[in-house]
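To fix ideas, we close by showing one paired sequence and structure record:
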Amino acid sequence: MIDGSGEQWWLWSERASRNALKDGKPARITFRRPHLIVIDTCLRLRVADVTLTNSSMFHFVPRSIDDITVERVMLRSPWDGSAPNTDDIDPGPGRNFWIHHCDIDTGDDDIVMKSGGTNILIEDNPIGHGHGISIGSETTVGVHHMLVRNCTFDGTDIGLRIKSIRGAGGIVEDVRYENIRMRNVEKAFVLRLDYANKTARTSKAIRLKFRCFATLPSSTSPSTTPAKPVRSTELRKARSSASPFGTSN
C-alpha cells in the first residue's frame, strides 16, 4: 500500500479556498498539491497489484507513455467532500492504454482520460463513489479511439462524462461504451462543453453524434442550451433508470 497521507493537504486547500473567496477571487479555484505517483516519458509500463490511497491530489498520473497496462490496482480516498481533486487514474498524453480489473472508489474522477490519449481500452473495472469515467477537461489535442466496456458503477454521482473547456477544446472521436451497468447513479451520461471557461467564444459549429445500443429502450432524452446547440444525437435501445442524459454547451 502507498498512502499519500493527504489529510493535512485537504485541510490546507479548504482554508486557502475560503481565504480566496474573502479576497474576491473566483469561487472555482484549485490550489495545486503534490500528486502521489507521476510517471513521465516511458515505453512499456505495467502497474499491478498495489493499493493507492489518500493522495493529496491526483493518485496516479502516467503521461507521455507508449504502451501501459494498469491492472488489479485498488484506489481509495474519501468521497464525502473532504478530499478535493483526488482523481484516481489520470492518463495522457500517450498511446495504447489498458486499464482493467481495478477497484476504484474516490471523491473525484475515478478514471479520466486527458488530452492526447490514443488507443485506450478500459474494461472490467468496478467503480464506487466519485465522478465516474471521464474525458477531459483538457482536450486541446483531442482523445482518439477509446473503448470502455464491462464496467460497473455503484454510487457515483456521474457514470460517463465528456467535459471540455470552451475555447480550448479538440477532436474527441471514436469513443465507445459497451455493456455498462449502473446502480445508484445520479446521472448516467454527461456532456459538458463549458467546463471551466463559460465566456470564451468558439468559432466552429459543434456537431455531435451518439449511438447507444442495448436490449431495452431508454426513457432518457438529450437537452441543449441555446449557445451552441448539439446536433445529430441518437440514442437507440439504451436502457437507463438514472437521471436523463444531459448536455451543457
User: Anything to note?
Assistant: The radius of gyration is 18 Å.
